């Protein structure tokens, strides 16, 4: 359909901007790996790349790995860019660099879809998801690649059904350079948490692909060399529970057929803990991590933000239930809520101690456009657009009290002793509940063994010898080595090192305290 009647050949340069550093970007872990340079391949931009006419050459550059060069821009006829709000400056910078070569630049993705007015310098604004706006953009570029006289706004009215989505062009990305692979089954979420822009951007009625599409995508990822963890970037994996239950048996079959070549991860609401039939199948499909937006342990706060579904089971019980199926809970936490009190920080630290969740992305409340929170704060005249602040929210508590509390919490929660104690608990109480899987052919390959040895060498040298918390590390490492748990040693240390180093930077002010929770879905939503 998209290529009907299109004969012209256009060379398209797809550029993904650098992330702003955050708890969820893990860049402090990269130097310990064998060459990882970025978190996850951008699902949306690779989807667009696959959707372009088959005879159009496409070049993909992720600036988290390398910057687009003069040669890239000279090669291209037009440039496509996509990203989140926190990548705004970087996207505008890419636009200016492309304009220096007189190239037309189109921007799509979640940020421009919510705030087209933030991007006056771009030639084409693609607002909304893959659909008729995308077809129109392709048709215009096919006719003429020169920069239009004025900005052109293209807005998707008719979305392409997800069942017609092509397989993202994974082959364009160097998958080995990413910490995680990505895949997407559904889009949208039925809930309406006050701070979240997903329902407004992608709808409350989750749209889904077919299980056959997902299996074909997994096969393609495998062909492209992906053998590590693959993250379902769905806004809420159980947003449509029936769809999740339909998919899971196919995942189980695929894992059996391929020898459990990939570990799986996803985002889901904590009430998944009430669904043993889903958890059991997830365990069999070798899911090892679920990101749950716990947000706060305070029931009043959950009620106020319309996240009552987090209280369908007591939070700690929910975390333990998920762990009993061998899955680690990673949690998002927000500070600076209207319900926060001076003692909120202490309550949060007590929750972290008790839940023993190793990885929590703790962030200050930030109002995103297109959210009920934004609308309310606007009505209350509590949006502050001073960009030197750590949040655009006028908190009810004094600003300095909130910032001090945030810094105190992360400085304590991410002390090396505490981080490694929580990872020890994870290895002993969660990982042991995982499905026992045979070693896949890929994991037994020399390439994989060599990779593991390189990472171990880096960990032992950079953390065990040069690191300033090496004593804590070795206490943890010896226990793992005695149990023959190399995987626990490697994966825990990679994550722990990032959390410790990032928290130190944030506490010392070298890192903005308000890096809006880089909820992994937002990097990946398909609104290109
Ligand atoms: S925060 Fe999660 S559960 Fe709430 S609306 Fe957004 S995606 Fe849905």
Bin the strand percentage.
5-15%
The separation of the N and C termini measures 18 Å
Silhouette: globular
Tally of helical segments: 19
Nearest-angstrom radius of gyration?
23 Å
Please provide the count of β strands: 14
Can you summarize the main beta sheet? 6 strands, parallel
Q: Averaged pLDDT, please?
A: 93
Q: Strand order, main sheet: write it out.
A: 2-1-3-4-5-6
Indicate the low-confidence ranges by residue numbers. 514-528
What class would the helix/strand composition place it in?
A: alpha/beta
The ligands found in this model are: iron/sulfur cluster
Helix percent band: 40-55%
Walk me through what this model shows.
Helix content is 41%, strand content 12%. The chain has helices at 43-51, 70-75, 88-99, 110-114, 132-143, 198-202, 211-223, 241-258, 276-284, 299-304, 315-324, 344-355, 372-379, 399-413, 416-429, 446-465, 470-482, 486-507, 520-524, and strands spanning 12-16, 58-62, 78-82, 104-108, 124-127, 152-155, 181-183, 186-187, 207-208, 229-232, 263-267, 287-295, 328-335, 360-364. The chain binds iron/sulfur cluster. Iron/sulfur cluster is lined by residues 189, 191-193, 196, 198-199, 235-236, 269, 293.
Jot down its keywords.
binds iron/sulfur cluster, 19 helices, disordered C terminus, 528 residues, six-stranded parallel β-sheet, alpha/beta, globular
């Amino acid at each position: 359909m998209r290529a009907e009647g299109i004969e012209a050949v256009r060379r398209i340069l797809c550029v993904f901007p650098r992330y702003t550093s955050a708890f969820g970007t893990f860049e402090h872990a990269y130097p310990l790996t064998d060459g990882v340079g970025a978190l996850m391949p951008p699902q949306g931009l690779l989807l667009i790349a696959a959707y372009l006419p088959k005879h159009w050459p496409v070049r993909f550059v992720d600036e988290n790995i390398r910057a687009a060069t003069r040669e890239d821009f000279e090669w291209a006829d037009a440039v496509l860019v996509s990203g989140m709000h926190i990548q705004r400056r970087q996207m505008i910078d890419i636009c200016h660099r492309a304009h220096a070569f007189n190239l037309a630049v189109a921007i799509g993705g979640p940020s421009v879809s919510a705030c087209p007015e933030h991007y006056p310098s771009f030639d084409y604004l693609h607002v909304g998801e893959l659909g008729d706006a995308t077809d129109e953009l392709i048709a215009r570029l096919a006719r003429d690649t020169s920069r239009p006289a004025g900005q052109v706004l293209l807005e998707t009215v008719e979305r392409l059904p997800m069942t017609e989505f092509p397989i993202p062009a994974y082959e364009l990305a160097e998958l080995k350079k990413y910490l995680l692979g990505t895949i997407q089954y559904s889009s949208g979420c039925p809930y309406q948490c006050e701070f979240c822009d997903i329902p407004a951007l992608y709808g409350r009625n989750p749209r889904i692909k077919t299980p056959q599409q997902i299996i074909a995508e997994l096969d393609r990822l495998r062909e492209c060399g992906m053998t590590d963890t693959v993250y379902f970037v769905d806004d809420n994996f159980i947003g449509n529970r029936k769809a999740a239950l339909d998919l899971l048996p196919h995942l189980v079959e695929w894992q059996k057929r391929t020898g459990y070549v990939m570990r799986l991860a996803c985002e889901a609401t904590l009430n998944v803990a009430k669904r043993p039939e889903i958890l059991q199948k997830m365990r069999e499909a070798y899911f090892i991590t679920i990101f749950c937006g716990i947000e706060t342990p305070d029931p009043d706060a959950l009620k106020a933000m319309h996240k009552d579904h987090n209280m369908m089971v007591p939070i700690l019980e929910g975390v333990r239930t998920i762990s009993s199926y061998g899955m680690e809970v990673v949690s998002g936490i927000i500070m600076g809520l209207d319900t926060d009190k001076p003692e909120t920080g202490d309550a949060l630290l007590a929750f972290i101690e008790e839940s023993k969740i190793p990885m929590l992305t703790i962030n200050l409340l930030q109002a995103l456009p297109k959210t009920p929170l934004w609308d309310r704060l606007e009505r209350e005249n509590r949006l502050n657009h001073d960009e030197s602040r750590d949040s655009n929210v006028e908190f009810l508590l004094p600003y300095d009290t909130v910032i001090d509390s945030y810094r105190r919490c992360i400085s304590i929660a991410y002390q090396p002793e505490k981080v490694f104690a929580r990872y020890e608990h994870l290895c002993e109480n969660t990982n042991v509940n995982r499905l026992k899987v045979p070693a896949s052919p890929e994991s037994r390959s020399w390439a994989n063994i060599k990779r593991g040895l390189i990472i171990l060498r880096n960990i032992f040298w950079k953390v065990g010898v040069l690191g300033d918390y090496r004593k804590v590390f070795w206490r943890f490492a010896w226990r793992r080595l005695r149990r023959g748990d190399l995987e626990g040693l490697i994966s825990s240390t990679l994550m722990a090192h990032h959390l410790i180093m990032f928290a130190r930077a944030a506490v010392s002010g070298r890192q903005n305290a308000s890096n809006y929770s880089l909820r992994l879905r937002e990097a990946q939503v398909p609104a290109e």
